Amino acid sequence: MSSNHGTHGENASQEPNAAEDANPDSDPIAPQDLSSPSDPIAFQEPMVELVSVWKSFGDKEVLRGLDLTVQEGDVICLIGASGCGKSTLLRCVNLLETLDRGSIYFIGTEIAPGVVNDNAVRKRMGIVFQSLNLFPHLNVLENMTLGLRVAHRISKATALELAKEWLARFNLSDKISEYPERLSGGQQQRVAIGRAMIGSPDLLLLDEVTSALDPELVGEVLALMKELAAGGTTMLVATHEMGFAKEVASRVCFIHGGVIHESGRPEEIFGSPRTEETQRFLARLREGGRL
Ligand SMILES: Nc1ncnc2c1ncn2[C@@H]1O[C@H](COP(=O)(O)OP(=O)(O)O)[C@@H](O)[C@H]1O
Ligand SMILES: [Mg+2]
User: Which ligand is nearest to the Cα of residue 82, counting in written order?
Assistant: First the structure.
């Protein structure tokens, strides 16, 4: 873990408590926070930093002092057995869960539900889940632009232009007026990822976005994820798609026992895993034909 927690803590304590103030001008994650620190020593602020994060549900301890640093441009694949806490981790980052202990920093500011302006933070993170991402009663254009219009307060005309741009990029231009039920699962997930990206978030969180799809539809979604990764999108991806992790991840993190048990470049994790637990997990995947 990097040595800058103290600095983070101090910065965070100087931030106004935006939860008591719905005024968007008091956005604690203001754009100016993104500029390089005035520190003359070149220092790249991590995009996200989790420091000793603990999270239980009832008496089940899911995250047990988990540390993770995500730098700008990273594509981090979170792997691990079902129930190991991948979704919980992503939900904590997106302020959908309150930590029991520990801290999460987003671009240098400590974030926690209700302590910062949750919507200001979420505006700068896109998240896509396994399924049911789209509003069924809204068409593709309305799904794509709702957040832009409400959270980002972008005009109808600009939102339409942005939606058209992203739909063209994702090869979905002809679906602009379609309702979700008329789209394939793969198309729905591509629209959901487009919607997550349309506000130009700093970070994209993807939680098993291909696992509810029929096998023949997985490829089109993975291809789109690869394209975003190649374009420099910072991504934190919970996945069972080991092919994607091997090919695209800048770092693979194996979650076990509530912590990042082992992490490294894909060739390290898949080629020469150091610990017995990682070896056992990978062996199970191989037996199941998933690696
Ligand atoms: N809201 C919740 N209430 C109770 N238990 C939960 C809740 N969310 C997750 N869990 C439990 O926490 C553990 C981790 O879940 P999850 O983060 O979804 O794992 P993964 O995404 O790696 O499969 C599981 O045992 C799950 O049942
Ligand atoms: Mg999950």
Answer: 1
